[in-house]
Amino acid sequence: MKQVLLDLQSGSIQVENVPVPAVTRGVVVENAYSLISAGTESSLINLAQQSLVGKAKARPDDVRKVLQKVGTDGPLSAYRQAMSRLAKPEPLGYSSAGTVVTTASDGFEVGDRVACAGAGYAVHAEYVSVPKNLCVKIPDDVGFREAAFTTVGAIAMHGARNANVTVGENVAVIGLGLIGLLTVQILKAAGCRVIGIDIDPEKLALAADLGADVVSNYDGLFERARGLSPFGADAVIITAATRSSAPIEAAGRLVRDRGRVVVVGNVGMNVPRDVFYEKEAEVVVSRSYGPGRYDRNYEERGIDYPIYVRWTEKRNMEAFLELVRQKKIDLDRLITHTFPLDDAPGAYDLINTGKERFIGILLQYSPNGAGASDTVVHLPEPSKQRRRVPAAARTLGCIGAGVHAQSALYPLLPNLPVNLGGLATATGLSAQTVAKKYGFAYCTTDYHKILDDPDIDAVMIATRNDLHAPMAIDALRAGKDVFVEKPLATDIDSLRRIVEARNESGRRLMVGFNRRYSPLAARMKEFFANRATPAVLHYRVNAGQIPPDHWVHDDEQGSGMLISECCHFIDFMQYITGARPVQVFARAIEPTGTLQKYDNFQATLTFDDGSLGTVTYTTLGDRSYPKETVEVFAGNAVGRITDFRDLELRREGKASREKRWLAQEKGFAEELLAFVKGEEPDFAASVATTIATFAAWESIDTGAAREIDPGRVGL
User: Fold this and answer.
1) Residues 462, 404: contact at Cβ < 8 Å?
2) Residue 256 belongs to what H/E stretch?
């Protein structure tokens, strides 16, 4: 299928061929029309067209994060990760309409006509995958062209709701672009008297035609407003887009005593305190298109709010379409341009150059007759010199392309003695972009295509945590060797099934415990190889807080930091000691505020050679301080690794030290080379590590030490 993409490095618009997306918790829709949001999308394009310095000035928070990474990971690693993010094209669009072709929701059937919403979902593409709460059925009397406006209509609807308007009230709308003109019509449908305000005479004339009782530019505005309402506007809704604070200043003068000002557009917010203080006026910044926005449970997982949360995103979308059906919203007057999908760059050129007046710009899609079956796209060989791969090299297929995969794993693949077969991700854009960048033969949104490919004999799984176990089991049963990122499993039953599948298949399974493959770790292990005593180990992780709404905290997808991250450090202790953990006792800080229950803990492990290891994991520290420090004490000697850039070894008063200045040596390249060369991994250690994380969780919950018994999973 074709999709409109923004190159974040150059700012250019491209129409690329990518696989049809996979259905998840909603539907796959064949688009008929999608609406370009000139304000939102052009601001992103303008940012992309700036130099690196310009991008940095516009995103100071991102620069701060990069500088922190320089301190912990080294300048080379930080640079690679930052450029990797910029190299990924950005999908554009968030409002579309079309026909359901695949459904995973009881609320929709194949053939339903639907309007779709959401950045990253209702994009400018021939097919889109949309969660069920961001998708509504189109009334019979409404066409696809009109329905493509549903998302921006819901934004206008939510702004009016935030103003708490009632029949007969006087409302001012500042800014008569697309959302402003929709707001005027919604307010008229609600029985309000409306004054429309803009500096463009053509927009003022159009607003009057669409029902505004009074229209005005800023000259003589307050006299005209007093003619509409001598005591001031009951509410002012700002839908303008400008860095200037003139709209909020005008709103303060227009609104009545204890009236309401709602900010919908992206405007300057230098609020004149004296004006608002004297009127005790209320200011509300309207958040997109209703309750549910930015709530992962609502938008991604499809968990609806009770009806007493009356106007959610979806209900606002439905209400807007009903107004369109009743002919209370006139969209024909707002559609100024319609471009075929292939001419999308021309549409954005019109917006950027301003060579023609525009309001509503639609992209139109022609039915391609392929249905939703085109989930594989074969890619041409890179124009650069073909990679030299040994004749007997195996062929690798990869599943998943998140931040970790793209920053730590996939950049290493072109340098490995392996053929790159297929890459599978849930979204077509991600699959196509990453596959093309690293030289895969094809990309797909159906991971079973990788497993069914007879040429692929090894599979790498780098998805979200909850998919590791089921995909690894499928790959083993398909006769593939498996490299799976940590954690190996998120619950004991899944781990048991993995052990069973691995034993039955006879295939190799390696877990991405990369730290044991670090050259610094190898030197530390060799240093303690002939120790005469058990070891005492302390692994301290100054992780920094991860936002509470991040998927890693989701019980279903991530299972928290103890399961997701602590496994790394337990495995490292196994590697250094050469011993298995047999017992764990753990304690955690109780959750408070944004702190999660299993994010700040200490776990002390006993190993079968008598060694003791403690993991201290905290999100409470300063990010400028080193993230990972591991210390080992044994046989009158000490070893320390800091952030896998600094190794110090001491014995009998003599010290040696190694320092990596440009980047960390976390062992990613070494572990991948070991996998593609067919080296036998320590599968039993990986299973023991995974059980140890489950046991630590149980210890926190019960307050008692827990045994670590691989027999629980049949090992």
Assistant:
1) yes
2) strand 255-263
At 573, the amino acid letter reads M
- Residues 405/383, Cβ–Cβ less than 8 Å: no
Q: Rounded CA gap, 90 and 44, in Å? A: 9
**pLDDT of the residue at 55:** 47
pTM of the model: 0.85
Scored b (16 or more CB within 10 A) or e, 305-315 reads: beeeeebbbbb
Question: Strand pairing partners for 197?
Answer: 174, 216
Q: Over the stretch 541-557, which tens digit does the pLDDT of each residue have?
A: 999 877 666 666 666 66
CA nearest neighbour of 16 among 364, 377, 371, 446: 377
Q: How far apart are CA 509 and CA 574, in angstroms?
A: 18
The answer to whether 624 and 68 have CB atoms below 8 angstroms apart is: yes
- CA nearest neighbour of 663 among 679, 681, 647, 643: 643
* Structural domains of the chain in order of their starting residue, each with its CATH number: 2-137+334-364 (3.90.180.10), 161-285 (3.40.50.720), 376-513 (3.40.50.720), 515-664+680-713 (3.30.360.10)
pLDDT bracket for residue 319 (50, 70, 90): very high
Residue that the structure tokens 């819901």 belong to: 154
First to last CA, the chain: 46
The CA distance from 600 to 588, in Å, is: 6
What is the sign, positive or negative, of the torsion defined by CA atoms of 61, 63, 66, 70? negative
Closest of 376, 172, 395 to residue 263, by C-alpha:
172
pLDDT tens digits along 368-418: 655 455 888 898 876 444 667 887 889 999 999 988 999 899 999 999 999
* Average pLDDT of the residues in 459-478: 96
